[in-house]
Every structure is written in C-alpha cells, then in structure tokens.
Amino acid sequence: MLKPAANGPAVIACNTCRLSDDMRENDDGQRGGALLVEALRRIQASDPAYADVAVEEMPCLFACQSFCTVHVRCPGKVGYVMGKFAPDDDAARAILDYARVYADSDWGQVPYKQWPQGVKGHFLTRTPPEGFIVE
C-alpha cells in the first residue's frame, strides 16, 4: 500500500535492512536500517541546514545485498540509491550533506568534487524521474 510522502528533496531509508553482510541485527535486536533512520533523524534535528531535506523510511528497497540503503530523490531530478552504509552519525551526515547539494542541483547530477567523502563508493543505481531519461 502507498502512503503520501514529502514532495521535495528526500532521503528514504530502508528500515528493514541488515546491519551488515554478516549480521541481520545488533545485540538489542535492532536492524541496521532502523538504526540508520534513527541516525538520519538525529543528525537532521541537530542542524537546521538539513531542514529542507525530508527523512522518510519504508520497508525494503529491494537492495538486500547492499545493507543500509537509502534512496535520494526530488521531483524532476534523477534519483540515486546508495547502500552499504554503517548505521551511524557519520554516514547519516554524509548522506544528508549529499542530499543538500543534490537538492540544489539543476536535474540531480552533482559534480564528483562536491560529493562528501562518506558517500563515495556507495552508489548502486540512478533512477530517471518520471517522464524523463538521461541523455
């Protein structure tokens, strides 16, 4: 079932992702995706610079081989799925920093030199916006 979501820049995190390649959850029974959602919300709340980027969650982005995945999207822009993050504040800050420069881009392409170090090597796919493909 679908539910309404933010209609602007957003980071959608898989809340059911594994903790790592080897572990489904931590010793307290928390999945990596749920921990990453908590970190994203904690970092977002700590800095007003992230206020324009929605942090949302949903079960399973179907990227199970790439634990702790997120989808960065904005209407009319190419979207990106990234994964294999540690579910911690450093990863959350890098994701939100990327989402900010992504939101400011014309159509979703961010020059590599503007990528935060913490997102490099984490990109899995890019998705065209509805009604468009990339030339």
Description:
With 135 residues, the protein is an alpha+beta fold. The protein has a single domain, classed as 3-Layer(aba) Sandwich (Glutaredoxin). Helix content is 23%, strand content 17%. Strands 2-1-3-4-5 form a five-stranded mixed β-sheet, covered by helices on one side. A hairpin with a 5-residue loop joins β3 and β4. α1 packs across α2.
Short overview:
This protein has 135 residues and is an alpha+beta fold. Helices cover 23% and strands 17% of the residues. It has one domain (10-127): Glutaredoxin.
Topology:
Elements: E1 10-14, H1 32-46, E2 54-58, E3 70-73, E4 79-82, H2 89-104, E5 123-127
Parallel strand pairs: 1-2
Antiparallel strand pairs: 1-3, 3-4, 4-5
Low-confidence stretches: none
Number of domains: 1
**What's the multimeric state?**
single chain
H-E order:
EHEEEHE
CATH superfamily: Glutaredoxin
Number of helices, where a helix is a run of at least 4 consecutive DSSP H or I residues: 2
Q: What fraction of residues sit in β-strands? A: 15-25%
- Could you say which overall geometry the principal axes of the C-alpha atoms support? globular
What is the typical, i.e. mean, pLDDT? 96
Amino-to-carboxy terminus distance = 33 Å
Helix content: 10-25%
CATH architecture, by name, is 3-Layer(aba) Sandwich
Largest sheet, described in full?
Answer: 5 strands, mixed
